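User: Can you recover a sequence for this backbone? Please restate the input before giving your answer.

Assistant: Of course. Working from this structure:
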């Protein structure tokens, strides 16, 4: 079974207005609530593509209870750890006529290390063998930077392959557990390198350093420029069609696509192709939705993959 972990989920509340205007009391045309979170998104894309996964998440308070109810209704398989504090709510205001969008992100609730330990317990006690564990997103406030490192080590002790998609200090600590795959974007990779990486050569060289630390696959996503995948045997560059700038969830979808390929033990080029196609499929899907089978089928033939020289 595939397990995704979301330590910092959200309840997103979208108010749709006719038009955003200031100093006025305005009526919402529609109010939509959707739970968010990177691991949750990975599970959503897997589900849309017909692959089961278990979504593990930290959930707290009334906002958390509402998010949980909505996740249940989506049909996700959930394993929840209740936390003391309230799950964060983000507020999004959309102006229908002028197309403006205001996104207000709240800080996540403080989480205690003992609450993370309960996620560890879940990982150590899964009834189904954890084939793969996907650790995605930032860490909650109050949690040690090595939380992903610890969860990764525990997952590996149970024979799971670990995918880590995070940035900053949690990524820096997490790579010491030698995950199977990491998927930084360029900014996250540069932060890890401690310098700017210009051009393919420098990116490849730094990916090589990461591989020597025990990671097997490094995928660097480059937004509309596609992505690079580097292993000990192969280096690939993927190109994507430009769709538009609404790319929310593209990175998470890419992770989901690669998880599907890896659990089927497909060749690396196919794994990469599936990741790219899922990410583009999410960009094609206008609105808040992610990959669907239809947008995946549309995206798949538009992906280009070439081998690049590692020397
Ligand atoms: N404008 C775009 N058009 C087409 N495809 C895109 C576009 N932006 C991103 N993608 C696809 O999505 C992948 C992931 O995007 P990106 O590099 O922005 O990830 P990310 O920064 O991790 O995103 P996230 O915010 O979801 O974490 C890219 O490698 C590419 O395949
Ligand atoms: Mg990302």
């Amino acid at each position: 079974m595939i397990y995704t972990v979301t330590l910092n989920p959200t309840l997103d509340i979208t108010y749709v207005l006719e038009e955003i205007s200031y100093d006025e009391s305005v009526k919402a045309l529609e109010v939509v609530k959707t739970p968010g979170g990177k691991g949750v998104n990975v599970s959503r894309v897997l589900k849309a593509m017909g692959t089961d996964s278990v979504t593990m998440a930290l959930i707290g308070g009334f906002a958390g209870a509402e998010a949980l109810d909505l996740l249940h209704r989506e049909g996700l398989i959930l394993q929840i750890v209740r936390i003391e504090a309230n799950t964060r709510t983000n507020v999004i205001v959309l102006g229908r006529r002028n197309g403006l969008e205001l996104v207000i992100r709240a800080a996540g609730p403080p989480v205690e290390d003992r609450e993370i330990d309960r996620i560890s317990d879940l990982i150590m006690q899964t009834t189904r063998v954890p084939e793969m564990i996907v650790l995605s997103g930032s860490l909650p406030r109050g949690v040690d930077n090595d939380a992903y490192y610890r969860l990764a080590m525990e997952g590996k002790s149970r024979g799971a392959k670990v995918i880590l998609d995070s940035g900053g200090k949690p990524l820096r600590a997490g790579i010491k557990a030698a995950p199977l795959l990491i998927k930084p974007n360029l900014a996250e990779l540069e932060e890890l390198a401690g310098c700017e990486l210009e051009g393919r050569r420098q990116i490849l060289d730094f990916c090589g350093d990461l591989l020597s630390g025990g990671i097997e696959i490094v995928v660097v996503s480059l937004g509309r420029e596609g992505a690079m995948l580097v292993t000990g045997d192969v280096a690939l560059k993927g190109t994507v069609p430009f769709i538009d700038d609404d790319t929310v969830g593209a990175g998470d979808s890419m992770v989901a696509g690669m998880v599907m390929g890896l659990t089927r033990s497909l060749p690396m080029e196919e794994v990469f192709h599936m990741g790219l196609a899922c990410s583009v499929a999410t960009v094609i899907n206008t609105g808040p939705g992610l990959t669907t089978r239809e947008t995946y089928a549309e995206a798949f033939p538009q992906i280009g993959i070439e081998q690049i020289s590692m020397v």
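That completes the design. Residues 29 and 228 are 43 Å apart (CA to CA).
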